[in-house]
Write a structure and sequence with these properties.
This protein is of the alpha/beta class and about 325 residues long. It is about 40% helix and about 20% strand. The protein has 11 helices and 14 strands. Helix 5 links the parallel strand 7 and strand 8.
Amino acid sequence: MHVLITGANGFVGRALARRLAEAGRLDGRSIDRLTLVDLALEGLPEADAVHAEAGDLADAPWLRRVVAERPVDVIYHLASIPGGTAQQQYALARQVNLEATTTLLESGKAQVEAGQRAPVFVFASSIAVFGTMPPKVDDETPPRPVMAYGAQKLIGEVLVADFSRRGWIDGRSLRLPGVLARPPARTGQLSAFMSDIIRELAAGRPFVCPTAPGATTWASSLPCIVDQLLHAATVAGDRWPQGRALTLPTQRFSMAELVDAIAQVHGSHARDLVRYEPDERIEALFGRFPPLDTAAADALGFRGDADLPSLVRQALAPGRTS
């Protein structure tokens, strides 16, 4: 089978590519080509199946050529312009988050019209589609994004559902929570503090948390998210909800509970290294997450991290499985 990953040089993309290259199989089938697509590609997994395609997703003719080179069985569309950067750079976010997504979806249409099978299309959406949340979120909660990134991800979900109804792709949109622990980098993600606090406290360094101790959020470890992405490609298309979008099971916790879990895993001294200096904007965006019910995803076999200490352990050990 042929698997293609966009955003393959990103935090999640690298981990997914590594797992697929190591396994050499997906959904019981051998992977004989693993096409990795990103603006630049470094540290590629060593496997005969790996094929690197460095280029700009905003270059639609180039992207069409890459996808049309050989029929694709599974597309993992992970590439995006995230959070704060999407809010500040409208043209770039539109090109990557909307236009490149449309180009990829239309590649599925072209593949079907050429007499080939519709590709499974796993779209990395985001919990940002919910925006300001009600007292509880479940499968019936309507998305109401309040930032450009969430709005663009919601548009992507609608397109994935529409192309699936037309038979041009077999789509599945996964609303990813925060993924921990990202390496220190200027990606424009306003939620980076959740990764930073784990990394800094585990290393014995002080940390200023931009929320109150009781601020609540949702997050999963990187290995857990990779497991969920892999699982998404194996669930039969007729089992997915009509809108083809799922909110994934994840951990909900307060920042004080996260610090306690870090202390449990990395030593009690971690509690003494934290100072809380709430930033109203950060807390409004990432510190008021309500209880979450993911019954639809649970029924399809998706699983989150077992508990908060497990999340902390796995967050700094991305090579492990959840």
